[in-house]
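FORM 7B: Structural annotation worksheet

SECTION A. Query
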Amino acid sequence: MKIEQIYTGCLAHAAYYLESNGEVAIFDPLREVQPYINRAKLDDAKIKYIFETHFHADFVSGHLDLMKKTGAQIVFGPTAKPNYDAIVAEDGQVFEIGDYKVKVIHTPGHTMESTTYLLIDENGEEHGIITGDTLFIGDVGRPDLAQKVVAELTQEKLASHLYDSLRNKIMPLSDDLIVYPNHGAGSACGKNMSKETTDTLGNQKKTNYALRADMTKEEFIEAVLDGLTEPPGYFPQNVMMNIKGYESFDSVIHKAQNALSPKAFEAAANETEAIVLDVRHQSEFIKGHIPRSIFIGIDGNFAQWVGALIVDVTQPLLLVTPEGRKEEVVTRLSRVGFDNVIGYLEGGFEAWKDEGMEYDTLNSISAEEFSKLYEANKDYVFDVRREGEYVAEHVDGAKNTQLDYLNNYLGEFPEDKTFYVHCAGGYRSVIASSILKSRGIHNLVEVAGGYKAIKQTDIPRTDYVCPSTLK
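SECTION B. Predicted structure
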């Protein structure tokens, strides 16, 4: 069977390309759709259907633009209520793609419209299942997202539906089927996903905690809900964009083509409520940046951190980008619904400096320097890694102020005492430092290299010990 997984690492997202006899189906496309159109041209094929496994929360799908550009029909599973023309399929309905067939299997639980698509080859043999967020490799979709959109859909109700879907619809299928999920490790749509992005269903039945054969519904609900963190704030907004529709990607790119001189950039920042978003490498931001700008580097998990920390997808943005990467930045912002880029700094930060404009720096020291200061400042160390990282291992006395929820911790940072901020490797600590400085908190020092570098010093650390090993 000719099926390709198109994986985008920064979002841990998988789209799928299925082609047979000149006809193509695309599953869960990203916002920018030209790559799918180009891929079909290579096969001299026409895109016939765009299958959506559900209304996504972590990204804005490209289904509408792809429909407009190709004439393909959008397909959702049962109960979906999109605000545009689409086929809302029935459970068990079959679609033909050349000599292949795609069978709709309604699998509510992650969301109520969540659907798995069974792929059947030209010989009538079942090949695999495109599972969306119903079944991942090593995990299943979190059942707490839909309640952010429809309050009565509690996470317990959705988890109950998910249990039934997995037991009654997925697990009875052949062990030989290949599982093609929508996400891999790093996505916020699950909590225990594998780095592998495909597997056989048979192996998942053996290794995936949620598919244990003798698991009761009560055990399943408890296991699936245990350890869920608060989902990123932009998720419900992405859901609504996927349901209601959105501005075309081409329009978003065109609108962002607004080159601003340093003085015009400063005027725009002062006259609007735009956030100045600096996406250069953290080492460049440390050496110099526009005052009150926020750093989120393009070479990290950029879109996910923008969504988690800026939250409001309608927020106007002004960009400071590396040379030649402006369109990439706008594209990656649009994937998570941030379509309101109102301009960018022409010539980048160097032009700002050359114009003699005011700029700020970030106080950053090496782990070796920090080790000499630690004893006198051990009560003023802030670790912005996630809770699991902190629990596993941390600097003695450090306080865990996770970057994801930094705004909740603002009252914990001292007002009149220098404090030290670190993460795992230096990316998140610079993000955190930029946010704190934008809020007028300047008495901070960032520890370059983060915990990886700190571990190479003699600074005392606390390591997690599994309770079962305690005497």
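SECTION C. Observations
The first helix runs from residue 34 to 42. The first strand starts at residue 3 and ends at 8.

SECTION D. Sign-off
Analyst initials: ____
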